[in-house]
Amino acid sequence: MKPFFITTAIDYTNGAPHIGHAYEKVLTDVIARYQRLAGRDVFFLTGVDQHGQKVQQSAEKAGVAPQEYVDQITAKFRALWQKLGVDYDGWAATTEASHKACVQTILQRLHDEGQLYKAKQSGYYSVRQEQFLTEKERGPDGNFGPEWGEVILVEEENWWFKLAEHKQWLLDLLDRRPELVVPSFRLAELRNAVAKLEGDLCISRPKSRLTWGIELPFDRDFVTYVWFDALVNYISFAPGYDAAAGADLTEFKRWWPAVHVIGKDILVPAHGVYWPIMLKAIGFSDDEIPQLLVHGWWNISGEKMSKSLGNVIDPDVLADKYGAAAVRYYLVADITTGRDADFSEERLVQRYNVDLANGLGNLLNRTLNMAHRYRDGKLRLTECNEENHAKLRGAVVESLTRYTLAMREFRIHSAIEEFSSLVTKANAFVDQEAPWKLAKDPAMENRLDSALYHLAYCLRVAATLLQPVLPEQGKAALDQLCADPIRLDVVSDFAGENDFPDGHQLGKPVPLFPRIETPASE
RNA sequence: GCCAGAGUAGCUCAGCGGUAGAGCAGGGGACUCAUAAGCCCUUGGUCGGGGGUUCGAUUCCCUCCUCUGGCACCA
Predict the structure, then answer these.
(1) Poorest-pLDDT segment among A31-40, A57-66, A117-126
(2) Which nucleotide is closest to A186, CA to C1'?
(3) Which of A2, A67, A94, A199 is buried most deeply by CB count within 10 Å?
(4) Please, which residues bridge with residue A8 across strands?
(5) Contact in structure between A218 and A111 (CB atoms under 8 Å)
(6) Cα(first)–Cα(last) distance of chain A, in Å?
(7) How many CB atoms are closer than 10 A to CB A495?
(8) Which residues make Cβ contacts (< 8 Å) with residue A146, sequence separation at least 6?
(9) Residue A489 counted as domain residue
(10) How confident is the model at residue A119 (pLDDT cuts 50, 70, 90)?
(11) A320 CA – B53 C1', rounded, Å
(12) Which class for A402: exposed (0-12), middle (13-18), buried (19 or more C-beta within 10 A)?
């Protein structure tokens, strides 16, 4: 099976991480863990984007060197990922020497191959915002508003990347390989944007304005533009990549192409336009253009999260308050992958209590209790042809099948739906079978044994399905069952590989998910 | 402005051509193995407005309204 290479966007180290950063990393972590569970080799790359104007300014304001500044912020990100159980294999920090060297090698190659050129740019320039202004920035009266500060006419020489000449190629590629952008409505958005593309991409900033960046190797008066630096992380930190012409890329190509998990705000133009064209220019084939999984945003009461509105959600605080498990579960369960959702602490607590505490946790607890009370915690293989038992087996197989499909298609919310609906079915099964009644009737011995066996099996499946989302709790549930995860590549109706042996001893019940009690719920 | 998305039960959202679904909230009930959890039944909707296509539309097309996002170096 081909190894699986998945990346997140790298976060800009200009401020503390918020719930959106956390969502993207947890989402990617869940996908990576699922692929591992399904038996694939996985490389999960994430990191931080540390260069640029804003960092340079923030560092100056804080009175520290830019590197020191980004190191501090970077530490916050890494601490949060550890707290949330985001388990990556590679860490991309763009100030690392190896990354800089890779970017410079690529730039030099493009330069030598004539894909870059130097040209003059002139226009209105805002000193305060440090950017060129276009007609769109003019106010209704035809002048630039006060928010831009002093506006001057500037003429500046810069380096450009020949982007526009690849426009038709990209359009054709998107038509030929629509699976490159998930969900599909984002493909339409990207296609429209590409169709309107004109002009090349300015890839340099003069050092007089910006020093905190990677120098152009062929023109030391410039540093490179953010995207030529940041996007390259996906290959510069990939296993086995070497930018040098004629390098041996055997190992790299085992992993490539990647799946890039990104937010909807950076699809156009960065990941949807610049990146595929950059890869093509470097020599990647059409089959080596990576797939983009574009996720939505968490809004707060229908509004965009922003510092100025003062409604930023701090995932660190949230994890301390409710636990990392509740946060992880909520972030992937309560949003349709690709769409936006409304963030609500109340729903976070609700999903945790309903699905995990009352659902899986209680099912595990009551099952183990009954097994110990009636059978000393031992499972027995029996001949029992109850229709109700067969129905539950059918439900298990169906859940597994649908879960697998959903995970492969990155519909994480649907996969979790399968998990919780299986738990619900098993809880209903307990009431239908009423083992406490069966236990009183000697003629029902086989049926009781079969019911307990079926429940234990369901729990084992449910705990396995939960593992990508909540690895620790999934493992803890399996430990109480004294079982390994089931093998997802053996979707069988109990027989064979995934069976419990006759006489299997179950562990003691220990509450897995203590209910979260809030003032409102009392 | 251009492009895209959303508008479905009180709330949060699935569904997307064939007599409206889930969870939560509300109402009723039976049970006791369990984290007073779980289970069963049930009240809620002319699926944003208006046209059209179709034997048939929440689902396709047009149009209007409202909200959101991208087009500007914030997941």
Answers:
(1) A117-126
(2) B4
(3) A94
(4) A261
(5) yes
(6) 51
(7) 8
(8) none
(9) yes
(10) confident
(11) 56
(12) middle
CA distance A356 to A420: 8
Of A386, A496, A488, the C-alpha closest to A446 is A386
Does residue A355 form part of some domain?
yes
Q: Enter the tokens of residue A36.
A: 């591992």
Chain A span 428-467 residues with beta carbon within 7 Å of strand B: 428, 430-432, 434-437
Split into its structural domains, chain A has a count of: 1
Q: Under a CB-based contact definition with an 8 Å cutoff, are residues A123 and A154 in contact?
A: yes
Written as one letter, the residue type at A57 is Q
Q: What are phi and psi of A318, to 5 degrees?
A: -60, -45
| Residue A126: φ, ψ to 5° | -90, 120
Sheet holding A219-224, edge to edge: A204-206, A219-224, A215-216
Domain with A463, as residue range(s), is 345-521
Omega before A511 within 30 of 0, i.e. cis: no
Backbone angles phi, psi at A302, to 5 degrees: 80, -5
The CATH number for A408's domain is 1.10.730.10
User: Does residue A469 lie within any of the structural domains?
Assistant: yes
Note whether residue A245 is domain-resident: no
Between helix A362-375 and helix A471-481 the angle, nearest 10°, is 10
Q: Measured from the CB, is A205 under 7 Å from any atom of strand B?
A: yes
Paired tokens of A100 = 């800089």
Report CA(A385)–C1'(B71) in Å, whole number: 63
User: What token pair was written down for A471?
Assistant: 């690895």
Q: Which nucleotide is nearest to A356 (CA to C1')?
A: B35
- CB A304 under 7 Å to nucleic chain B: yes
- The confidence score (pLDDT) of residue A148 equals 62
Per-residue model confidence as pLDDT tens digits over A275-334: 999 999 999 999 999 999 998 888 876 566 666 556 678 899 999 999 999 999 999 998
Note the strand B nucleotides within 7 A of protein beta carbons: 2-6, 12-15, 23-24, 31-35, 37-40, 67-75
What is the spatial distance, in angstroms and rounded to an integer, between the CA atom of A389 and the C1' atom of B18?
34
Question: What tokens were used for A216?
Answer: 């152009």
Residue A51 in 3-state DSSP?
coil
Closest nucleotide to residue A191 (Cα to C1')? B3
For residues A119 and A125, the answer to whether their CB atoms sit within 8 Å is no
Mean local confidence (pLDDT), A468-481: 96
Contact A94, A51 (CB under 8 A): yes
Cβ burial, residue A314 (10 Å; 0-12/13-18/19+):
middle
Is the C-beta atom of A419 closer than 7 angstroms to strand B? no
CA dist A43 and A21 (Å) reads 20
Query: Residue A335's pLDDT is what?
Result: 87
CB atoms closer than 10 angstroms to residue A472: 13
